[in-house]
């Protein structure tokens, strides 16, 4: 574990490791950083904690934030870091546009807003509603590196943290265009149903069977 963490000593190396060596797995969120490395699997939350572990070891100010969605859509967790006066992040996701960001954002809010036009559900609705401030991990004493129970507890505490609004729960929904929908899609869990309007517009190069596989 330590060798991998030490080798991923820049945000670019961290994101590359996530993309190349950590398969998106929607069925478990309780993996410790060690388990993510050993098993090569992780959900967005696990990928964010992995990223924070690497970046903190490399001397970056780093922690996680949660992006919260409305209408029953899933939350998204980012591993945020600060470089100079600006914020960037690393991320694991089943959508291309929900991956990491370069350190060009002057506030956490600006970073969160950059996800709004990419944050849509499988039925096509744009759903990003709120975000947290940087979440303090110090009290967990790095147990999340090896202890799944601590990972679960951090997830619960993060959900209970104050969320800053970007949209109201009763705001009208807008829908992503069909071409954008398919360009952003990296993985579709088999338990989701794709609306007909998007299926009918699916490009020939998109293989639904491949998108539904955990590789």
Characterize the overall form: globular
- For the record, give the distance between the C-alpha atoms at the N and C termini, rounded to a whole number: 22 Å
> Spatial order of the strands in the main sheet?
6-5-4-3-7-8
Task: Return the domain count.
Answer: 1
Structural category: alpha+beta
Helix/strand order:
HHEHEHEEEEHEHEHHH
**What share of residues is helical?**
25-40%
Low-confidence spans: none
CATH topology: C8orf32 fold
Word description of this protein:
The protein is 33% helix and 18% strand. The protein is globular and about 50 Å long. It has one domain (2-165): C8orf32 fold. The protein has a 6-stranded antiparallel β-sheet with strand order 6-5-4-3-7-8. Strands 1-2 form a two-stranded parallel ribbon. Strand 1, helix 3 (33-39) and strand 2 form a beta-alpha-beta unit. The protein starts with a helix and ends with a helix. It is of the alpha+beta class and 215 residues long. Helix 3 (33-39) packs across helix 4.
In short:
This is Transglutaminase-like domain-containing protein. By secondary structure, the protein is an alpha+beta fold.
Overview features:
Transglutaminase-like domain-containing protein; two-stranded parallel ribbon; alpha+beta; 9 helices; six-stranded antiparallel beta sheet; 215 residues; C8orf32 fold; single chain
């Amino acid at each position: 574990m330590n060798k991998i963490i030490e080798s991923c000593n820049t945000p670019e190396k961290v994101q590359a490791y996530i993309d190349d060596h950590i398969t998106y797995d929607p069925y478990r969120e309780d993996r410790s950083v060690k388990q993510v490395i050993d098993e090569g699997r992780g959900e967005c939350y696990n990928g964010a904690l992995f990223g924070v572990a690497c970046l903190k070891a490399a001397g970056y100010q780093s922690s996680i934030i949660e992006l919260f969605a409305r209408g029953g859509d899933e939350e998204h967790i980012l591993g945020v870091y600060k470089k100079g006066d600006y914020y960037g992040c690393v991320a694991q996701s089943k959508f291309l546009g929900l991956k990491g960001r370069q350190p060009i954002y002057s506030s956490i809010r600006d970073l969160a807003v950059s996800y709004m036009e990419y944050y849509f559900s499988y039925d096509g609705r744009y759903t990003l509603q709120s975000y947290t401030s940087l979440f303090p991990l110090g009290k967990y004493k790095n147990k999340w590196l090896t202890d799944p129970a601590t990972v679960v507890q951090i997830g619960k505490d993060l959900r209970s943290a104050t969320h800053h609004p970007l949209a109201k729960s009763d705001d009208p929904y807008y829908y992503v265009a069909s071409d954008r929908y398919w360009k952003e899609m990296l993985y579709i869990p088999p338990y989701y149903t794709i609306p007909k309007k998007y299926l009918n517009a699916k490009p020939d190069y998109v293989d639904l069977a491949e998108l539904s596989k955990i590789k």
